[in-house]
């Protein structure tokens, strides 16, 4: 008896390689977002090429993109630094975040599945562990993941892109506060947010997110986080 012919497997697509310039941009963006570069701290091409393990061209492109997004300032002497937020700019950020992020949470709530909520519970457990142990970097990364795991479910890509830009501007100042006072008094209204998601209560989720934002902005404002970084050796500066 003739054996049935086996159906040949379809060729597997090779994973798409992320362009080097995009990798460099994302890594530099994260350095700003999570406060590895403090407000007022100069950024030079030579230092970044060594830190990021990237070439001059992708680093220059990343700097230009982040300057256009307001995450870096191009100085008159062609140096780049992380902006120092003024009181007025902090007020603008507070207004924008308190307007957009609760709305994203409200939109996301009916889309959240049990799997989504379980993943958020795991992230929140990591945030709580970071707060207990005083691990600032872990707290910042976990807090970001928690919020954007919610916002990603909103189905509102325009609002999401704006909020990502707002966090990029706010992150360095929050990192200054964490460095000064540790993690003991950092905002964490995640339990209220999780309870609202379990209940399918969109207004309650929006309120929990809004209160979490207010606490974070209050911490930054009260601590006067818009201070400059330590003086930078200008002999290391690079032309852009």
Descriptors for this entry?
disordered C terminus; Arc Repressor Mutant, subunit A; 2 domains; 9 helices; 240 residues; 3 strands; single chain; three-stranded antiparallel β-sheet; mainly alpha; globular; Four Helix Bundle (Hemerythrin (Met), subunit A)
Question: How would you describe the overall organization of this protein?
Answer:
Helix content is 62%, strand content 2%. With 240 residues, the protein is mostly helical. The protein folds into 2 domains: 20-84 and 226-236, Winged helix-like DNA-binding domain superfamily/Winged helix DNA-binding domain (Arc Repressor Mutant, subunit A, Orthogonal Bundle); 87-223, GntR ligand-binding domain-like (Four Helix Bundle (Hemerythrin (Met), subunit A), Up-down Bundle). A 3-stranded antiparallel β-sheet has the order 1-3-2. A hairpin with a 5-residue loop joins β2 (73-74) and β3. The longest helix has 25 residues, at 157-181. It is globular, with a radius of gyration of 21 Å. It starts with 19 loop residues before the first helix and ends in a 17-residue tail after the last helix.
Mean pLDDT: 83
* Rounded Rg: 21 Å
Model regions low in confidence, pLDDT < 50 over at least 5 residues = 225-240
Per CATH, the class of the largest domain reads: Mainly Alpha
Task: Enumerate the strands of the largest sheet in spatial order, edge to edge or round the barrel.
Answer: 1-3-2
Give the count of structural domains: 2
Structural class: mainly alpha
Number of helices: 9
β-strand amount:
under 5%
* Outline: globular
């Amino acid at each position: 008896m003739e054996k049935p012919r086996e159906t040949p497997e379809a060729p597997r697509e090779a994973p798409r390689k992320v362009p080097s310039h995009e990798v460099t941009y994302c890594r530099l963006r994260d350095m700003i977002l999570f406060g590895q570069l403090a407000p007022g701290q100069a950024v030079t091409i030579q230092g970044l090429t060594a830190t990021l393990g990237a070439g001059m061209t992708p680093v220059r492109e990343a700097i230009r993109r982040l300057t256009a997004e307001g995450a870096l300032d191009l100085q008159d002497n062609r140096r780049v630094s992380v902006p120092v937020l003024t009181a007025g700019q902090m007020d603008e950020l507070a207004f924008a975040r308190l307007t957009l992020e609760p709305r994203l949470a409200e939109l996301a709530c009916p889309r959240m599945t049990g799997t989504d909520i379980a993943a958020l519970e795991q992230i929140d457990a990591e945030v709580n562990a970071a707060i207990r142990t005083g691990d600032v970097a872990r707290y910042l990364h976990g807090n970001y993941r928690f919020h954007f795991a919610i916002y990603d479910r909103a189905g509102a890509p325009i609002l999401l892109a704006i909020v990502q830009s707002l966090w990029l501007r706010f992150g360095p100042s929050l990192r200054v506060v964490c460095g000064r006072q540790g993690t003991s008094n950092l905002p964490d209204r995640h339990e209220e947010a999780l309870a609202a998601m379990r209940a399918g209560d969109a207004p309650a989720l929006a309120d929990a997110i809004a209160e979490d934002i207010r606490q974070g902005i209050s911490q930054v404002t009260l601590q006067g986080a818009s201070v400059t970084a330590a003086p930078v050796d200008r002999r290391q500066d690079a032309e852009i």
